[in-house]
Amino acid sequence: MSELGGDAVRGGLWATAEKVVSRGLRLGRYAVLARLLTPEQFGLFGFAVLALTVSNRFSELGIDTALIAREGDIEGAIPTALTLQIARGLVLGAALFLAAPLVAAFFGDPRAVGLVRLVALVPVVDGLHNPTLVTLDRSLDFRTRALITALTDTANTAVAIGLALATGSVVALIAGMLAGTVVRAVVSYLVVSLRPLPGFDRGEARRLIDYGKWLTGTSILAWLTREGDDALVGAVLGSASLGLYRAAYQFGRSPQTEITGVINTVAFPAFSNVQSDARALQEGYRRTLQLVGALAFPASVGAALVAPVFVPVVLGSQWVEMVPVMQVLSLTTVFHTVGAGAAPLFQAVDRPDLLTKIKVVVLVALGALILPLIEAFGLVGAGIAVMASVAAAAPIKAVVAAWILEGGLVEQVAPLAPSAVATLGMAAVVAPLVPLVPVSAFGLAGLIAAGVVAYVAATALLDLVGAGTFDLAREMVTAVRG
Question: Domain boundary residue among 226, 249, 269?
Fold first, then answer.
């Protein structure tokens, strides 16, 4: 394996560790808070978060991505990047404060006004973080990234749970988010050597914004496709339903979001470094897809299978209505995985516009289906609409990736086959056990153990006939040691 490949693998393992720790803290926090707060309170928090995310997405400048993709030294662009960040944060904070009554009117709940105004502090603080953090991504230093994430999530968890225990108020959720943002901003100046002051260079600003303009469009479409369904669920079905739906998404699609997040974080700078080497790019994409399939397929299908036991055991009986939609959202990952490596590939070859154009397809499919399906099937209808939109985009991503890599479509998706077959074997073992086990921690642990053993055994059998999944794992270990 090349030096770059070894660096990417080491970075990938640290990025994976970051996601595991982060996801563990977040899901642990969610599970504890689900016992302290109600679905309706989580839905009210969801109103505020949706207002925050829509403002973030619709004003995304793509500065970090532009800095990562730029060849050569980026130090001269950092002061301008910091100024743009600060200005954007102040504008977003003011806009959220002023727009709070409109958000409350959209969701039909006046309680959202105060929560939106409180969450308006988040972008103001976040705008102060050190943009030099992108050098960690450029150098594949995900060990430091993991430290930052752990500190941020620990602060969020401690504050949110502490206030929820003390007050039982939804404000605890926003206070935790704000605490994590403050910690990230402070730590960002401690872990890198360059501590810039704001500055402004018109040429640098133009270069940064010009690169990010397609990413801005992609960011807007990403919000509409990822959280537009949340907004409609909240507006049509109310805060309690939104709380259930967001929890189903959090636990149902967390395997996909975290695994894909690791891939995008590691693959983008790795692909950027070899963008002129067609063979290295092809091999990197193939291995990326093989790895994501090996992790995402069993995790997503497994989550769907154990959901009837998982939800009452981990979250409590007041959340059981989310089980069917959690299962639908979990299975959505199967379609998403087919094009999982496309986003970092498109960005690395300087074609971020392709992401925007493909997301238009997702948005059209989602927009055409979601309201009729919500009205017909409630929360499950929203999940089905999301699945259909992801399924529509998957083959397009695969075809475009094959075109960029100058290879055949079958050749590009073939690395997913062994994991798909092994996952079917796992499902054949676990599915009959679900109605037989007790709804308890013991029963849940037994299902998970059975799934892990079945998947590993199926993978081992496939490797005997040359599937190569364990070969990839051995190469990763060698790269880390090297």
Answer: 226
CB within 8 A of 308, min separation 6: which ones?
323, 434, 439
Cβ atoms within 10 Å of 3's Cβ, excluding its own: 9
**Are residue 270 and residue 413 in the same domain, yes or no?**
yes
* pLDDT over threshold 60, residue 398: yes
Q: Is residue 231 part of a domain?
A: no
More confident residue, 465 or 481: 465
**Residue 149 domain boundaries:** 1-226
The answer as to whether 98 is a domain residue is yes
Residues 6+ apart with CB under 8 A from 21: 146, 149, 150, 153
25 & 126 share domain: yes
251 and 125 in one domain? no
- Residue 477: pLDDT band (50, 70, 90) is very low
Cα–Cα distance, 397 to 390 (Å, whole number): 10
pLDDT of residue 277 exceeding 60, the answer is no
What's the domain count of the chain?
2
The verdict on 218 and 252 lying in the same domain is no
Domain boundary among 226, 256, 282: 226
Token pair 């060849």 in the structure block, residue: 71
Q: Structure pTM?
A: 0.83
How far is Cα 30 from Cα 114, in angstroms, rounded to an integer? Answer: 22
Nearest to 124 by CA among 152, 96, 98: 96
Contact between residue 23 and residue 250 where contact means Cβ atoms under 8 Å apart? no
Q: Which two tokens stand for residue 393?
A: 């985009």
Residue 132 maps to a domain: yes
Q: How far apart are CA 259 and CA 273, in angstroms?
A: 22
Nearest Cα residue to 49 out of 162, 147, 209, 160: 160
pLDDT tens by residue, 99-112: 999 999 999 999 99
Dmax over Cα atoms in the chain, in whole Å? 66
Scan for tokens 């133009």, then name that residue.
206
